[in-house]
């Protein structure tokens, strides 16, 4: 709690309600080295994303089924939904099997952590 003291030396009645300033990076950025911000270049209504939305991508998090991921397909960044079918991972709606980074196949670059839009 922040210390608030008036010129008289008495504590302000509001002091018990004082809070630290709001820091969005403390709320949304949980891993400073593994999270990146990108701006959506076009609308993706199936994911609830509009052009110019700010996306936070987490590189160190393993995707879960139905989670939106940023993937590299044909050497281009795209947003896709991750599906685990049996033991194989697929990028939907592209129906591409998740490949190997070292083999330069289609692979997951990171998972979508949050979407931010200016009203």
Structure explained in plain terms:
The protein contains one helix and seven strands. With 119 residues, it is mainly beta. It has one domain (31-116): Ribbon (Umud Fragment, subunit A). Strands 1-2-7-3-4-5-6 form a seven-stranded antiparallel sheet, with no helix packed on it. The longest helix has 5 residues, at 24-28. It is elongated, with a radius of gyration of 21 Å. The relative contact order is 0.18.
Domains, number: 1
Give the terminus-to-terminus CA distance.
Answer: 31 Å
Q: Largest beta sheet, briefly?
A: 7 strands, antiparallel
CATH superfamily: Umud Fragment, subunit A
Per CATH, the architecture is Ribbon
SS class: mainly beta
Morphology: elongated
Strand order of the largest sheet: 1-2-7-3-4-5-6
User: Compute the gyration radius: what is it?
Assistant: 21 Å
SSE pattern, N- to C-terminal: HEEEEEEE
**How many DSSP H or I helices?**
1
Q: What is the level 1 CATH name?
A: Mainly Beta
Q: On the 0-100 scale, what is the average pLDDT?
A: 81
Number of DSSP-assigned strands: 7
Uncertain residue ranges? none
The fraction of residues in strands falls at: 35-45%
At CATH level 3, the topology is Umud Fragment, subunit A
How much helix is in the residues? under 10%
């Amino acid at each position: 709690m922040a210390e608030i003291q008036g010129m008289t030396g008495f504590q302000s009645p509001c002091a018990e309600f004082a809070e630290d300033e709001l820091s969005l990076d403390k709320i949304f950025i949980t891993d400073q080295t593994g999270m990146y911000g990108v701006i959506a270049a076009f609308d993706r209504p199936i994911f609830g994303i509009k052009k110019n939305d700010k996306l936070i991508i987490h590189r160190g998090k393993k995707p879960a089924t139905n989670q939106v991921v940023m993937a590299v397909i044909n050497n281009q960044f795209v947003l896709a939904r991750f599906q685990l079918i049996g033991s194989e991972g697929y990028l939907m709606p592209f129906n591409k099997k998740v490949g190997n980074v070292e083999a330069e196949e289609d692979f997951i670059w990171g998972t979508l952590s949050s979407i931010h839009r200016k009203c």
